[in-house]
From TrEMBL, chains A, B:
Domain (ABM) ranges: 14-101
Native organism: Pseudoxanthomonas wuyuanensis
Alphabetically ordered keywords of this record: Monooxygenase, Oxidoreductase
Top-rank taxon, per record: Bacteria
Molecular function, one GO term: monooxygenase activity
Pfam annotation, one family: ABM
Gene3D superfamilies in alphabetical order: 3.30.70.100
Protein's name according to its UniProt entry: Heme-degrading monooxygenase HmoA
Amino acid sequence: MSADGFAALPKPPYYAVIFSSQRNGRDEPGYYATAARMIELAQRQPGYLGVESTRGADGFGITVAYWESEEAISAWRRHAEHAAAREQGRSDWYDHFELRVAKVERAYGWDRQAP
Amino acid sequence: MSADGFAALPKPPYYAVIFSSQRNGRDEPGYYATAARMIELAQRQPGYLGVESTRGADGFGITVAYWESEEAISAWRRHAEHAAAREQGRSDWYDHFELRVAKVERAYGWDRQAP
């Protein structure tokens, strides 16, 4: 994640993993430590492109991670520490989540500061 | 958007429009009124499937709208009131946004309450 929240991405095509989740509000320190660790680990994976993430005061959050390929997504899914974090997400942190894997076909951006 | 924040979607394939934005913090009433109106209008469009949206205290937000087809996305883009809202977004409400159009290929969910 860049300092301003936006991922700097190459031109499409690439893949997006859209993760929507409802936190149960418990164990904020443990949750945030693991979330930060997962981003740190993901950044070191082959094919990682970037991530954008936000969560409202109601505990509903959306994280979109961007990857070069389906193969990169599968490899990250098999990472042992990531698998353990997913398991803890089910047992301790989330009430509900939905995950969608999508191929980004086109993209467009706008920045007030852009020349 | 369903009461709990999650969109109830059919099985893939379908399309996702991932809209990431940084609010400038100005005109909260006008922004929220228009955001609510856009969801109300989008729900009446052919091919609309659902939306999930959240924004953190820092003003960074992610909205993902789901559509049956590229044609449905294009038709919504041409809606006059939507076009006017996008123009006002640039002039009044956002510092930066990124929009990505993606084809959802697979999806998976988990709910603590599920039987």
